[in-house]
Amino acid sequence: MVAGVHVRLWALSDLHLSHPLNREALSSLPAYPDDWLILAGDLVDGLFQLDWSFSVLTKKFKQLVWVPGNHELWTVPGRTGELRGVALYDKLVEVARCHGVITPKDPYPVFPHPTGSVLIAPLFLLYDYSFRPSSVGDDEVIAWARQGHSVCSDEYLLHPDPFPDRATWCAALCAEAAARLEAHPPGLPKVLINHYPLEEQHAVLPRVPRFTPWCGTRRTRGWHKRFNARAVIFGHLHIRGTSWVDGVPFQEVSLGYPSQWDRGRGIGGYLREVTLAPTGGCGS
Ligand SMILES: [Fe+2]
Ligand SMILES: [Fe+2]
Question: Which of 39, 165, 206, 229 sees the fewest Cβ atoms within 10 Å?
């Protein structure tokens, strides 16, 4: 970095580079050689094109921070490889580390923002079907979603091995992440990054309202306050926007499938600079 240069923190999710049109557009993304880029999941499907995607993006940014989305956890035999569940996640992390990409399994780095240093916390937390109306029981979720034509492909492609189910895996991931976050000084502000919304109020999908069970977990309710967040970054919904809760900006930063973004703007037009709460987040 050149002395005096303001290092910027960008975020983008759901690049879905398994789609050729999104891959083609990536080459036109300008380089930001001093800046960091947060990739909030759904970069590719499984391991397909993952190595290529990281090799392109690492040339354009000083530092990448990545969390997996559900698509990276997909096992599509003949296309993404045969690895499943935790073994697939471990392999994704191994590929990322080969490119110097920071993953949820690495020490959380400190980003030198001009308004004060922030801890960058990439999280992999999954979902547990708890984002649903209270009238829908545990064993009724899939049928309820099916009635709304909203069952997620994860039911067939995202395997929890060796956990018995995705909800159990989610519980383990949340417990581990919370313990790691708690081990950092509470006064150090954080940027929390997760593929899924941390708050149920953000899991709103007007076109597929019964897709919410695959959009997060109530276990993360209030984490922005509990862990002193100055920003929360997520994707998955393919509905871009920023909402403020308790003085903390929650940014959905997705690009999306080829039909969901304007190629005239290029991928660079969808990069979002991370907005930080003015001072110390919600201060609790
Ligand atoms: Fe996505
Ligand atoms: Fe997703």
Answer: 206
Q: Which ligand is nearest to the CA of 72?
A: 2
| Ligand 2 midpoint to CA 183 (Å) | 28
- What spacing in Å lies between the alpha carbon of 115 and ligand 1's midpoint? 31
pLDDT in tens, 121-167: 999 999 999 999 999 999 999 999 999 999 999 999 999 999 999 99
Write the secondary structure of the chain as one string of H (helix), E (strand) and C (coil): CCCCCCCCEEEEECCCCCCHHHHHHHCCCCCEEEEEEEECCCCCCCCCCHHHHHHHHHCCEEEEEECCCCHHHECCCCCCCCCCHHHHHHHHHHHHHHCCCECCCCCCCEECCCCCCEEEEECCCCCCCCCCCCCCCHHHHHHHHHHCCCCCCHHHHECCCCCCCHHHHHHHHHHHHHHHHHCCCCCCCEEEECCCCCCHHHCCCCCCHHHHHHCCCHHHCCHHHHCCEEEEEECCCCCCEEEEECCEEEEECECCCHHHCCHHHCHHHHCEECCCCCCCCCCC
Answering whether pTM is above 0.85, one says yes
pLDDT digit string (tens) for 82-136? Answer: 999 999 999 999 999 999 999 999 999 999 999 999 999 999 999 999 999 999 9
For the chain, the domains span 9-273
CA 115 to centroid of ligand 2, rounded, Å:
31
CATH 1.10.10.10 fits 9-273, yes or no: no
